[in-house]
Specification:
It is found in: Cytoplasm. The protein is an alpha/beta fold. It is built from 20 helices and 14 strands. The protein folds into 4 domains: 116 residues, Response regulator (Rossmann fold, 3-Layer(aba) Sandwich), CATH 3.40.50; 154 residues, P-loop containing nucleotide triphosphate hydrolases (Rossmann fold, 3-Layer(aba) Sandwich), CATH 3.40.50.300; 107 residues, Helicase, Ruva Protein, domain 3 (Orthogonal Bundle), CATH 1.10.8.60; 45 residues, Homeodomain-like (Arc Repressor Mutant, subunit A, Orthogonal Bundle), CATH 1.10.10.60.
């Protein structure tokens, strides 16, 4: 049977090492159906004997095997067979597993349980592409697990894989996600595990700096460049030279500063505010935002050419409600952190943990972290129960009634309570700037959706109900990607 992409007439041999017999049998059948020869083993010693003896064209190996860690075997294989592609599988799904696999020469890392179709596609791609030795990397060492990206959910696994692939590159990355999802943490991971790890990591939050000072903060200024500039000052670009510059809340950058930033990305140089001589710069740019930059581009608030320069590698961080299976690991991590900070050791009982998994987390991981800190500091119980968690998280029940009974809570009171909890989920009690537009956007979508539902998808009636022009409503439906379904009478 002919194998796509193989031109030498020989059928490639795939070497598989996994101590789980069932996985070996599944892979044997799936890869055999592609027309490849397959040899499989349950230990690292046999795999090493095959590879060192010149056998095989591609390796698929597990990490945890009875006689040796598969990650420790990778450098030995690469020393004697540098062109051999190695696919690493692991149920130990952490960022460090993905990063170490890439750092030690793996062609691809796949978390278990893996998608069989994806694995076979990776095998075919690895055998089809031109062979080239793996790029040399600077080993991280065993004690470098410093960035606490926690989670084993599929969403986090994909993030780990992307981070591992970016480790040896200088590509510009755009991190998007709601407030509190950990965007700066991911930016630090990109730096800490990347080729610029020995350089500085400098962060600047556009929303936290007066707009008129952003250019000076980024590029520095000369003495007398503006009122109050009593001395020359270096900017964040100079501070980050040779390292990574993290531009947080990039959507809040003024247009004038956007133009200067675009020049840096295009020409690799900038001038200080009030300066004339261009300064060469060598930094990696990582940006982040909770805002929809494409929408800002359409509104004329963000340069389209800058957007494409920054959005080379987009990385979306999921909100905590989309990866609720990670909450137990996160909660335990924050409880352990509290102990390290001198607070009493606590445990969370099963009912409390299940409640945390069902909660919506408007403040995302940051809200969970702050909750755990409060529980560790304020409650005497060694085991935190459901009643304690509910007391911290649940607002008084809001009732909307047509008449009679208890007095209903107004919408304004309900919103006020929601915002109070939202503010409390942020450090120093302040969420990122742009709250007004953000809250309006959050309200706008459900308002339009429920109006369309009430009018059975009739956009003319929905526009009348909302008091909007019909064309305005249609534009909002399109911009917000709202699905309009007409009910059948």
């Amino acid at each position: 049977m002919a194998v796509p992409g193989v031109s030498d007439g020989n059928t490639p041999t795939i070497l598989i090492a996994d101590d789980d017999r069932a996985i070996r049998e599944v892979l044997d059948r799936a890869i055999g159906r592609l027309g490849y020869h397959v040899r499989s083993t349950g230990n690292a010693a046999t795999l090493w004997r095959w590879v060192s003896g010149g056998e095989g064209d591609l390796v698929i190996t597990d990490v945890m095997m009875p006689d040796e860690n598969g990650l420790d075997l990778l450098p030995r294989i690469k020393r004697i067979r540098p062109e051999m592609p190695i696919i690493v599988m692991s149920a130990h799904n952490t960022l460090m597993t993905a990063v170490k696999a890439a750092e030690r020469g793996a062609y691809e890392y796949l978390p278990k349980p893996f998608d069989l179709k994806e694995l076979t596609t990776v095998v075919q791609r690895a055998l089809t592409l031109p062979k080239s030795p793996s790029a040399e990397t600077n080993p991280l060492g065993d004690g470098d697990d410093k960035v606490p990206l926690i989670g084993r959910s599929p969403a986090m696994q994909e993030i780990y894989r992307v981070l591992a692939r970016l480790m040896g590159t200088d590509l510009t990355v755009m991190i998007t996600g709601e407030s509190g999802t950990g965007k700066e943490l991911v930016a630090r991971a990109l730096h800490h595990y990347g080729k610029r790890r020995n350089g500085p990591f400098v962060a600047i939050n556009m929303a936290a700096i007066p707009r008129e000072l952003i250019e000076s903060e980024l590029f520095g200024h000369e003495k007398g460049a503006f009122t109050g500039a009593a001395a020359r000052s270096v900017g964040r670009f100079q501070q980050a030279e040779g390292g990574t510059l993290f531009l947080d809340e990039i959507g809040d950058m003024p247009l004038e500063a956007q133009t200067r930033l675009l020049r840096v990305l295009q020409q690799g140089e900038y001038t200080t505010v009030g300066g004339r001589s261009p300064i060469k710069t060598d930094v990696r740019i990582v940006s982040a935002t909770h805002r929809d930059l494409r929408q800002l581009v359409h509104q004329g608030l963000f340069r389209e050419d800058l957007f494409y320069r920054l959005n080379v590698v987009p990385l979306r961080l999921p909100p905590l409600r989309e990866r609720s299976e990670d909450i137990p690991d996160l909660a335990r991590h924050f409880l352990n952190q509290a102990v390290a900070q001198g607070l009493p050791a606590k445990l969370m009982d099963g009912e409390a943990m299940e409640f945390l998994k069902r909660y919506r987390w408007p403040g995302n991981v940051r809200e969970l972290e702050n909750l755990i800190r409060r529980l560790a500091a304020l409650y005497a119980e060694e085991v935190i129960g459901l009643d304690v968690v509910k007391a911290e998280l649940i607002e008084p029940e809001i009732q909307f009634r047509a008449g009679g009974g208890d007095e209903p809570v107004s919408l304004s009171v309900a919103v006020e309570r929601h915002l109070a909890r939202y503010f409390s989920a942020h450090d120093e009690g302040l969420p990122p700037a742009g709250l007004y537009d953000r809250i309006l956007r959050e309200v706008e979508r459900p308002l339009i959706e429920i109006s369309l539902s009430a009018t059975r998808g009739n956009q003319i009636r929905a526009a009348e109900l909302l008091g909007l022009n019909r064309n305005t409503l249609r534009k909002k439906i399109r911009d917000l990607d709202i699905q309009v379904l007409r009910s059948i009478k």
